[in-house]
Amino acid sequence: MNWRRIRQISQIFFFFFFLVLFLQATFPYRVIIPADYFLKWSPLVSLITLLSSRYLILAMIPALIILLLTLIFGRFFCGWVCPLGAVIDFSDNRIKRKKSKKLTSTKWRWVKFGILVFLIVAALFGKQFAWFFDPLALFNRTLTLVLYPVFAALGDGLFSISYTFNLFPDTVYSIQGFFQSFLLPVNQIHLHQSLFVAILFLSILSLGKISRRFWCRNLCPLGALLGLFSRFRIVDRKLNSENCLECNICRRDCRMNAISANYQDFSKVECINSMECTSSCLENSYSYTFAWRKDPQKVDFRRRQFLQSITAGFAGAALIKTDFINRKKAEVGIRPPGSVPEDQYLDRCIRCQECVRICSTTGNLLQPAWFEHGLEGLWSPVGDTRHGYCEFTCNLCGEICPTDAIHFLPLEEKQKTIIGTAYFDRSRCIPWYSGDNCMVCEEHCPTPEKAIVFREDLFTKPDGSKVITKFPYVVEDLCIGCGICETKCPVSGEAAIYVTREREERYLE
Amino acid sequence: MFVNNYNRRKFLKNFTAASAGLSLNPASVFSGENNSPLVVMVKNGSIPEMIERALEPLGGMSAFIKKGQVVVVKPNMSWASRPEQGANTNPEVVAAVVKMAYQAGAGQVRVFDRTCNEKRRCYRMSGIENAAKKAGAKVYYVNDRNFKKIKIAGAKRLKSWEIYKDVLEADVLINVPTLKHHGLTRLTIGVKNLMGFMGGDRGKIHRHIDEKIIDFATIVKPNLTIIDATRVLLRNGPQGGSIRDVKKMDTIIASENMISADALAAGLMGVDSRRLGYLVEAEKRGMGIIDVTKMNILKIELK
Questions:
Q1: What chain B residue is nearest to A439 in terms of C-alpha separation?
Q2: Most buried of A181, A282, A330, B67 (most Cβ within 10 A)?
Q3: Over the stretch A324-361, which tens digit does the pLDDT of each residue have?
Q4: Could you give the CA distance from residue A240 to residue A182 in angstroms, rounded to a whole number?
């Protein structure tokens, strides 16, 4: 077995490990390894979150270990572990590209350092944007919002053939039930933003048309960070130059274009230990030793580019920070129970959508936001109380948040945590406008002492006749803002009862 | 066992005595003025025994189930709530009914409900999924695709609605509701339990609910109704939440006639059946007698 194959097995292993943890983030939540475990492996997220929110997440020790291992092995994470890297490799191998004239093009390499500097500067400025670029968050987001719902819809379509033609419905029931117990959702998931995220993801894959691992070579700030640490790596790759035929195969096969024209040297920053050179060398002239030597190549990041990135960091952070926040929309979107105060929430959250994922399998409250919280609120998990509600007996979002943007609350505490308040729109509420009884909101209100109560009173109909009607009221002190009243309200379109962030309690550290 | 002619006052007095914890005669039959179906009420026994004794006068479970038939047992498992909170049918009742159905020769017993909270939470927390599965039933979630919109002939309000196909295809339907308070209809018992077979936006049912659920009940007719009044949610229904609102009553009511069974159960909660809109509506349409003084009632007190 050659080294390339071993690396591929590692990639497949970590890809499926990531996938299994993703699938595990569902109700019922059976913890074997915490579902957010892998998401804590990104040193980029830890660093930027640390800088922006001045909050050290102890759980991010795995990220530190990755960083230490990078000092030994170099950017092995990119080549051996990163699930996005694995997908990119998989897709790159299937993309036909023209024989590149610019084999040695390194023109865009600086961009990833630029992005890294931008992120660090913005973080010092108090804004965390690592969420947009971090490959683990990005991949988890794509899985949650795009790949998994699409997969579920296709799976459902497959089963529906049997129901439509009434072929063995009983057997298919149980087969479907079996798959729903671990792979498929019990309900089709509908999430905001899926098209936009899909386009971004497909763009990253289609950059493979220009060169292999285009994202990793030129754009990924995690790659840039690991690359800088990788300069100090002590596992060195040596070429036995006596054997070398100068056939150029290693340079052609290198996924990162890291090998110099003299074959002897390679860029310590760019090498991801893909083992392509080692495996494809006709003379087996590559070997590995523990040795430290200075990186013969310079980091492709000129002073001018560095200064430009710093400027962009300041300007960009300011620009994003000053974006308009639509209070009319932002303040009706409740945040999950246990979330930290809004500013910190936006800085801490890496938009991995893990909470959205687990919520979609139970109460279905959380959705990724669009621009209603300004540019910086993009994809931050927010409640859409017309679509779903916060399940009274659930506290899973806090349990799986990798960055503690949502803190874990014990169920008893969560059931008392106020995330918003409900209001009646009396001009549309059935008893209030027609005098007919309705009680759907009251019936669903989950608090042991109901936050929605009735008061019987006379209602005067348009013709002057009077009837006794049960008028519903919200008892403000009892309402926790879970939103089930709004979700279940039978009125068409906008509900006759709606939840806003009024009275919300955030988790104070 | 002795036969007695009771008038309404005596009857109510008896109920008051019962709720005050005083013992009733070990068994008594209220003979109605007509040949309305028998309603049996059994108190103070173990759950399987109460159900067994309740079905005896009705001919036993085998009077309802022929060998090999597909039986749907419909509990109330609307809420993500524990058994002791009284919002769902007692899982032991469901399990006992499932077992008896198999003993009577059922080919398959199916248990499902369209829930209000997330379905897996309801199935699990209610304890019904586990208990019914142990008893051998096939417990499954409703599949949105399996609803069929049907016309309801002679309906007053609900001209058509989606109904779960498995109900239409079942040979026998056993309704196993729980008795509890309900904010809109005062009480929810057997008739309202049928809403678990409804598809679509059930919130729309709540306007003119009395007529609509009776419209629905004209097409879904349980062969047998067994009311679980072992733990009764007295307030804040139908969901409840607080154990303080739950009263232990250890009672099972069974009848072929769901309407009369509901009417009798209402008395346990101290509610006059004639003040329940949907029962009045059902009686108007000749679906059952709701006046407890005119019903054939058999009361059995165990212990």
A1: B184
A2: A330
A3: 888 888 899 999 999 999 988 998 899 999 999 999 99
A4: 50
**CA angle in degrees (0–180, nearest 5) for A402-A405-A407:** 85
Q: Do A186 and B204 touch (CB under 8 A)?
A: no
Say if residues A22 and A357 touch (Cβ distance below 8 Å): yes
Q: What is the largest CA-CA distance in chain B?
A: 52
Query: Distance, in angstroms, between A170 CA and closest chain B CA?
Result: 11
Cβ atoms of residues B228 and B90 within 8 Å: yes
The packing angle between helices A135-142 and A194-206, to 10°, is 130
Interface test with chain B among A27, A365, A366, A438, by most B beta carbons within 10 Å:
A438
Angle at B195 between CA B194 and CA B196, to 5 degrees: 85
- In the stretch 466-485 of chain A, residues with CB closer than 8 A to chain B read 470
Outline where A35-147 has alpha helix (H): 43-53, 61-73, 76, 83-92, 110-124, 130-133, 135-142
Contact B241, A448 (CB under 8 A): yes
CATH class of A418-509: alpha beta
Q: Which CATH superfamily is domain B50-292 in?
A: LarA, N-terminal domain (3.40.50.11440)
* pLDDT tens, position by position, B137-192: 999 998 888 899 999 999 999 999 999 999 999 999 999 999 999 988 899 999 99
Q: How far apart are CA B237 and CA A225, in angstroms?
A: 58
- Domain borders along chain A are 418-509
R_g (Cα) of chain B, nearest Å = 18
Cα A117 to Cα A138: distance, rounded to the nearest angstrom? 19
Task: Give residue A306's pLDDT.
Answer: 93
Domains of chain B, by residue range, sit at 50-292
- Residue A355, helix vs strand vs coil: helix
